Amino acid sequence: MKRKQLSVCIISLVLFLLIPLFLGADDSADLSVVVTADRVEKAESETSATVSVITAEDIEESGASDLADLLETLPGVQFKSYSGPAEAQVSMGGFGENSFGRVVVLVDGRLKNNIDMRGLNWMSVPLESVERIEVLHGGSSVLYGSGAVGGVINIITKETDAPLEVEAGASVGSFLTHKEQASVGTSNALGSLRVGGSYYSTDGYRDRSASNYASANLSGSLYPTDLLRFRLNMDYNRNFYEMPGGLSKAQYEDDPTVAVNKEDESTEYEFGASLSGEYLMGDALVLETLLGYSYKNMAPDMASYPAFYNRLYNTFDLQPKLSWEGSIGSLPVSLVSGVDLRSSTFNVKTYSDKDRDTLTNDADFSLISGGGYINSDIALSGILGFNAGFRYDAARIGAENGDAAIDDDKLHAGPAWSAGLRWNPTPVSKIYLRHERMFRYPFTDEQSTASGDTFLDDLEAEKGYLYEIGGFYRLPKNARVDFRVYLLDMQDEITYVGFFPTGQNENYEKTRRFGTEGTLSLRPVSSIKLDGSYSYILPTFLNGDDKGNQIPLVSNHEVEGGLTWYGPLNIEATGEVSYRSDYYEGGDSANNNDMVDGYYLLNAALRWRTSLASGDLMLSLSVNNLLDKSYAQYVSWYYYPSTGRSISLSGNYKM
To answer: Partners of 198 in the beta sheet?
Structure first.
């Protein structure tokens, strides 16, 4: 790291730590923010972690069309995509290829991550069904297991708390885009029920980049007694998207809207369900259990190879846990302990023709994993707290291919641990120190080749060591400052060596990521709100031929800024600017090629709200990429252009 950069970070950190000594905190600030970063509900000021919370109101005001669009506004969260949100890959903590494997994503506690190298389809969780999103910055393998290295995204869906709730909305926009959604819910003393559905369609910015999805969801709660509670969640999604392919640099600069893959596309069907129960065993002891199931059927047509696939996934999860709050002597103590069990299989059949008459390969993959964890938090005094946790996990990854005579498996097992110290210098502030040892098992098709014809017995699990300091202050004038500095050392990080399809995955001995993240939220007067964030990440190789080089596909600098004006007649206007610095293209670990240009974007929105006799109505007009900048979030040998300027008009009604 350059000496100047290190000096700036140290000075910034010292100033941050001294803020509460010179500025009076606003003790009347809202302290009701409750998060589940520790897998139990806890005040944000009582956690040793940095957590970003996006509420349903934030989602409504953002004008975002999907989860990827929304989450990318957070510091340290980046997305790159081959073709729109259906294939967007999330990155936290400065990871490049397969970055999504280092971020755990949950929906109502049910793990959404696939066991193979297929990223999440972010369109499968409609924004209108989301009540709150909690983003844990930094790893947390003790509580969330394999893959929780860069961060954790916990999506919590809506429940109905009124006798009758009705919501409906529609939008139209550029590229023949339109969306319709509706939901209805009811509740009483015995429980609640909510059903909803949505449909989305677009022709896309590029040729052959059309997509559409349809979703339906049902959630219900039942309260048989004051001590017992059940919740059922079910969702079904059908997604279709075209894949226009990557462009050469010359093609990209000439016309970023063209397509080179004329017939590549995919159709996906996904069903998920979870049943959770909560039993109050006493004043201080709670037993919770989650049983989850997911089914996914994909049919990608990769005519450009050519290869045509049928991919079938089945996954079962069981997660019992106990939480306790009490005291040991005079010290308040909270404790959570549980077991996470998962059994997942997927079968991939490869055909040489679109009609799928000629089978060329048939492979089966499996993952069976189990881990037990315990995490405790002790309030040493009114302003000082200590937490520590431990987990031991094991996973068996298997691959079978009868044609290639492959039937092999490998057991990965190991510990994770964490320790943190928390200081609350004022009732509305927090500073913490944290260390965690983390891990990630290989994807099934990292341990084996994607066709299942070669099993890599020597491929090991990744291990990470996180050292972190962070915190937040609530200041006078409705202001809040958040800050985080971290060092993440990885061992045995898995990387693809060589060129597809002849290369293979290998463990890279040591890598390092140094980063900082900061946010500022300010409301100087009631009619103005200002938001800003900055993150810096330096990811480097620590040994081998690439020692000292930067890890590809990671932008060092990320800036977000926004201004919202609350005008008369319930009119709101928002302007946003974002910037991503340049990065090395995928595969360029030697840093031999020119860096891919960074980019900045301007977005604007205008909203109007009014209350009707039967409910509330909101109309909004938004423009994304106002200056129509050409940019590519993802470049790996080929350029994958992102969307140009788009305009949308939407309306939403709630009763």
So the answer is: 181, 215
- Assess if residue 552 is contained within a domain: no
Instruction: Tell the residue number behind the tokens 């974007």, with chain if given.
Output: 601
Residues 410, 109: Cα–Cα separation, whole Å: 28
Whether the CB-CB separation of 544 and 525 falls below 8 Å is answered with no
The span from the CA of 105 to the CA of 155, in Å, is 8
pLDDT in tens, 392-438: 999 999 999 876 667 789 999 999 999 999 999 988 899 999 999 99
Closest CA to 50 of 579, 480, 511, 381: 480
User: Token digits for 331?
Assistant: 């010290």
- The span from the CA of 391 to the CA of 389, in Å, is 7
Q: What is the DSSP letter of 556?
A: S
503 vs 48: which has the higher pLDDT: 48
Count of domains observed in the chain: 1
pTM of this structure: 0.92
Domain containing residue 42: 3-525
Whether 146 is in a domain gets the answer yes
Which residues face 195 on adjacent strands? 184, 218
How far apart, in whole angstroms, are the C-alpha atoms of residue 490 and residue 460? 13
Q: What is the pLDDT of residues 195-247, one digit of tens each?
A: 999 999 999 999 999 999 999 999 999 999 989 999 999 999 999 999 999 99
Residue 108 near residue 551, CB atoms below 8 Å: no
**Sign of the CA dihedral 134, 138, 139, 140?**
negative
Which two tokens mark 107? 């929906």
Number of other residues whose CB lies within 10 A of the CB of residue 530: 14
Q: What is the reported pLDDT for 405?
A: 61
What pLDDT does 25 receive?
47
d(CA 151, CA 492) in angstroms, rounded, equals 19
Residue 51 half-sphere exposure toward CB, CA atoms < 13 A: 26
**Which amino acid type is present at position 215?**
S
pLDDT of 313 above 90: yes
Element (H, E) at 13: helix 3-22
Single-letter code of the amino acid located at 240: F
Is 355 contained in some domain? Answer: yes
Cα–Cα separations (whole angstroms), residue 564 to 72, 73, 206, 482? 18, 15, 31, 20
Question: Is 258:207 a contact under the CB 8 Å cutoff?
Answer: yes
H or E element: which one contains 62? helix 56-62
Residue 651 has a CB neighbour count (10 Å cut-off) of 14
The closest alpha carbon to 50, from 32, 68, 33, belongs to 33
Residue partners of 618: CB distance under 8 A and separation at least 6? 60, 607, 608, 609, 651, 652, 653
- In a domain, residue 591? The reply is no
Q: In degrees, to the nearest 5, what angle opens at C-alpha 180 toward C-alphas 178 and 186?
A: 165
